[in-house]
TrEMBL record:
Matching InterPro entries: ARM-like, ARM-type_fold, PSMD5
GO CC terms: cytosol
Top-rank taxon: Eukaryota
One GO BP: proteasome assembly
UniProt protein name: 26S proteasome non-ATPase regulatory subunit 5
Gene3D superfamilies referenced in this protein's UniProt entry, alphabetically: Leucine-rich Repeat Variant
Length: 385
């Protein structure tokens, strides 16, 4: 760039800064003002993208934030976000947290460009323990938690993803599960089944990230709400909760928690009740319960014999083979495949001759999809060892 070009560029930036500062203080804008804003913001956006340090020109982020907060123009808002993304990247995280209006609007906006800006900003905290401490000790942390309940699923997902990352830091997990924040999550859970399941997913994801995280979540009672909603009036909720609890079977500690919380007993008792054949949700709940048992034996195969001895899972499944519709039978076939994919489970199947004989007879007599499903089950059993 020549000296003349540099001088012209700086003059353009200075003029643009003056326009932005003037209009940031205005109570309202006309169409000419909006055109001037678009032009000034575009000049700054291009300038910030073309050099790493301002050539003696400074645009205060407060000016751009004020314009963003006032504007209803998508074009102006998008330019504000692009400019702020560059300017704020050079500030300390402590300074960023001072822009409470920007953060509040960013969390609540229906425009994804604003949501992305704010979550990109706070994402920086994950990479610095000192910044992360600043965040969890600020009022902004509560706003992030509240985002889980937003109707905008994109915002809710970004908040959940961010909190899952935070939950892997012990001091951040302690802050997340403080009495006040637990109370906030309980209140949000009461708003809708969707929000409740989002919070369940968050807590389960964090608890399964490490042994210490699981122990702390259980100790704080963060997981107890899950165990109290199985087979309530809302069967759709029950299905989702069973799916979440099934993920607990992946680790011994998850299994021990389910045992201690009485979940395993509840899920066994559920197998004693025949589903309403005319109610698809009732049948799906039974299928989810059967899947749980198959995954439990598969994941915790070292305890398979003790589990079968205590609960007689195969005996409980036998009546479903004789009476149930195809969807429940298919769930049993998959569970048996998981059951018998480990040597311990296969031994139990061999010992339960009545159940195994029933499966063999069904394989001989069935045709079509049912036979194909049974053959898949057999392939799993034959592959053991």
């Amino acid at each position: 760039m020549t000296i003349n070009e540099s001088t012209t560029s700086q003059q353009a930036l200075l003029a643009s800064t003056q326009v932005l500062e003037h209009l940031a203080l205005a109570h309202e804008w006309n169409s000419d003002d909006e055109s001037a804003l678009l032009n000034a913001l575009t000049i700054w956006k291009v300038a910030l993208e073309s050099f790493s340090q301002e050539n003696g020109q400074v645009l205060a982020p407060e000016t751009v934030v004020a314009i963003l907060c006032k504007s209803s123009s998508t074009s102006i808002i998008e330019l504000c976000c692009a400019v702020l993304n560059k300017i704020l990247s050079k500030l300390s995280f402590a300074d960023i947290l001072s822009f409470k209006d920007l953060l509040r609007i960013g969390f609540q906006s229906k425009l994804s460009v604003v949501n992305n800006l704010v979550f990109n900003i706070i994402q920086r905290a994950v990479y610095s323990e000192s910044d992360l401490r600043l965040l969890v000790e600020s009022n902004i942390f509560t706003l992030v938690i509240q985002c889980i309940a937003f109707e905008n699923s994109q915002v809710a997902e970004m908040a959940s993803s961010f909190l899952k990352q935070l939950g892997r830091h012990p001091f951040a997990l302690e802050a997340l599960l403080s009495p006040d924040n637990i109370s906030t999550m309980d209140r949000l859970s009461s708003e809708s089944i969707t929000v409740k399941l989002r919070i369940y997913d968050l807590l389960v994801n964090i608890s399964m990230s490490s042994q210490s995280a699981f122990d702390y979540c259980a100790q704080q009672g963060a997981l107890s709400s899950l165990t109290g909603v199985i087979f309530q009036n809302d069967l759709l909720e029950s299905i989702n909760v069973i799916e979440i609890l099934t993920s607990f079977t992946e680790t011994p500690n998850g299994y021990f928690f389910l045992e201690k919380a009485g979940v395993i007993s509840q899920l066994f008792d559920a197998l004693q009740i025949s589903p309403n054949v005319d109610d698809i949700v009732s049948r799906l709940t039974t299928c989810a319960t059967i899947k749980f048992w198959g995954m439990l034996i598969f994941n915790q195969h070292q305890y398979a014999e003790a589990i079968q001895t205590r609960f007689d899972i195969l005996g409980a499944l036998q009546p479903f083979l004789e009476e149930s519709d195809s969807d429940i039978k298919d769930a049993i076939f998959v569970a048996v495949a998981n059951f018998g994919s480990r040597e311990e489970g296969l031994t139990i199947l061999y010992q339960q001759s009545i159940f195994l004989d029933t499966i063999i007879a069904m394989c001989r007599s069935n045709t079509g999809d049912a036979k194909l499903s049974l053959l898949r089950t057999y392939s799993c059993l034959l592959g053991v060892g």
